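Note to self: keep these together.
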Amino acid sequence: MAAQRGPGESAGSQQFTISYAGYNRPWAAWISHRLQRLGHRPVLRRWDGSVDQPLESALADLLDQPGKTLLILSDWYFSLGPRTEDEWNAALHAVVEPHTDRFAAVSVTTRQLPNGTGLLAPADLWRIGAEESERRVLGRLGLPTEGPYIEDERPGTPRFPDDPPAVWGPVPRRNPRFTGRDTLLSALHDWFEDAPSGAAVCALHGMSGVGKTQLGSEYAHRFASDYDLVWWVPAHTRAAMREGLAALAPALGLVDAGSEYGERIRAVHEALRIGSPHSRWLLVFDGADDPAAVADAVPSGPGHVLITTRNRDWGGHDAELMDVPVYARDESVAFVRRRAGRLSPAEAHLLAAALDDLPLLLDQTAGWLGQSAMPVEEYVALVSGSVSDSEDVLQTSPSYPEAFPKAWDILLNTLRENMQEAVDLLRLCVFFAPGPVPLRLLREMGAGRLPERLSWLTSDTLKWNRALKILIQYAVVRIEYQQAISEDAGTGVETVQMHRMVHGFVRDTMSDREHTTLSRVVQESLAAADPGRSSDSRLWPRYAELVPHLESCGALDSDDPKVQRFVLNCLRYLYQRGEFRTGLELSEKVRVAWTALLGADHGQLIILSHHQANMLRMLGRYREAEALSRTAVDQLSSQDEPDELELLKAMSGLAANVMARGRYPEAQGLLETVWERYRELLGDDEPRTLSSRNNVNVVLRLRGRYQEALDLDRDSLEAHERVLRTLHPSTLGTALNYAWGLRLLGRYTEATSRQELGVRLHLQVLGRNHPQTLMAQHNLAMCMRRQDMDLSASEALLGSTLERSERVLGRDNPGSLRVACDYASLLRAIGTDLGDARRRAEDVAARYTAAMGAEHPFAIGAYGNVALVLREAGERQEAFETAERALSRMREAMGEDHPWTLGCALNAASCRNLIGRVDDAAELSRDTLARARRVLGGQHPLTLSCEVGLAADLRGLGQRDEADKLEHDALQQLSRTLGAQHRHTVAARTRIRPFWDFEPQPV
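Structure:
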């Protein structure tokens, strides 16, 4: 019978030593785990290959380890040191040949290994799969190989090295020349392993050019088998960081996360926080030199966050700082010899000393020196002497490492001598932002837009590819994935990466004339790539690619109308995408530049004001937004021949800001003017006219004119369905408004029926987490509550909507606050946890006050809801004082006849009755009932509640006949409109005092 895999009687538990190069750590971890699973005791030992120890002695040290030693062989194992092939062959024969029973080996590469490895008879594991790899490892160690292969799917187990994480991207491709740093990588891995869950944030800190990005990339590749999700986030700007995080949403299967960056980022944060669908995750924020712009985006949860930065301030943001020094000298020597094989160890040592062991300089210098006939001693003499007399080299910043300007002067001269076109392409690249450079935009420009000396960019593919190949060869730029660059091939490379220090140095060493010429080329290439339709979500990926380069190319300072139009389109894109903070920062910079360039009263500044005001409003800075939009309207209105469509757009923005601040009559006047003028200019059925009509309906509802708003909503819905069809998002929004209006009028059954259909259509068209879908589900939950359906179902839907609103939109977003306000009221009505209901009600009221001011009707109404929960809790005096304050302030804000004021009066009368002020309660109740009948009609639920309330007060005063008649009439109407068994009808029948909840309305 064949022996089975595992520590059976024939094999026993054995100890093994696994020797591996750090680069192959995933193989070592997987093999060790598989051996442990079979009952053996493996020990991992990283092979350092130090030049300070003779190679034969280092190999012989492995014999001191107990049991058989398994060597994981690759070209990395033999390149550490580095040693010559002859040295390796000699050491292998001296150590392995007498002890073949103590050594075994596997090969994980296709590269040719030293001949001496034949003594080890390595088993080939290259691309053969996990089951066969285990069988070969066991066979090479003399262990049983029979029996089934059992996959270990327990959390935390190393994955087979050739199986990538479930989610991977867009990590830079692995650098085949990466050298050293094993101790630092191991320390980083150990720190992550020991860090508590939710707090594993480590920042790799070091000077430019020291290799932080390469280190982060190598960590991601080397320890990929520890993770199920690895994601790389460029973080040199806030916009790039948010774009990178948002791109993770679809990769995580968050298909309903919406199209707005904010929605997708919040969905990603929540998925990472709860560890679903992956709890073993790694996010790398590369180039995060501004913690204030990035820190709020760093996720928490069971995974790990790695940051690369030049800024030590990350230590103040709960990140562990880990310093990245320059290479140790033996690492420098090893790296140079891998990069330039013609150099001897002594020459590599000399070069490393001259370049201060800085990895970036070593990479670039060894790259071209390896192809050059220049002796190393001559190069070192040049670096150690004065900078050459080239006219193109200017005085540079002292922030660069000492050797950097001299080394780069030599490199630029070499590029000029070999191919001037490579220098031209390099200098064009630096007018894009550091990081990804979209080269294809240069190729897509028409030849007529280029200066004559650069016309080859679009006309000569041979020169293009030769120039690009030289820049890549000298490590001036790099590509993120393997691509062959041939001189006669097509231009397949669309994007390259440029190091920030190279980018800055090349710009610093250019003349003003070149700076002006080349920046204009890049500006025009970006403007030519502008799709021109920033509201079309299908084009957003193109804008996301273009926006990061606006400042670097000088587009903000351009006097070209095409470039200025492109800048405005980018601002529109940021607004449509929900990137309000980034959009505001950009608009502020544009304002400074255009004011200096064009003058404060120029038409472009007026258009800019509209965009800037929109950003401010969406960030809750209403006062600033109104001031800016009012200035824009005034400036446009004062022109002799204003652009009327721009003026109407500015007036709509001003109205939105005025409405957000609670000044509804003023907003209504503006919106009605805009609607009428759009009708005259564009016709009734043009989308902008339909949109302006909806805005009028919104402000009518806010003013309490529910029936008038509903009638207009019905007409508007018919027009939307005729012009835009049923499934258009604007039509769905209009249908939502109509259902909302039905509910406000007490037509609960019809409202619920329409909203159930509306939610299904929203889910179908817009997805689960779109803001409009969340509003539709919010309204459905409230319809269910008012119709007296199962309150637990209403609570479940409203609670789910609140959780998703806060996750997708943010906790203080107006939509989230609306849901939070209604959820607190529903919890109070259910009554199972008054403490939670009170805490939530007080929190909402405080947040409304902070955002909008104590006199805003939303803040007033929210405090009115606090009075209700205080009444339920038995705190009668405090409830009375809070309710009276809410009534007084609501009268001032909205007038005595507004439904919100009538609701506050209903609650205040109840509190007066509770503290024994029955006369005052009856007086208020009688006045409130008269106003409600006049404003809302005799059958509205609020009017009927006022009748029940007045009946209770009159009964307290002994006026039973009038009380009984009012109660009888109210019960009949409640039974007809709501049903005999409706909660409100039953409460009135059992003489439970009615109340009114304040519900914030959409603005």
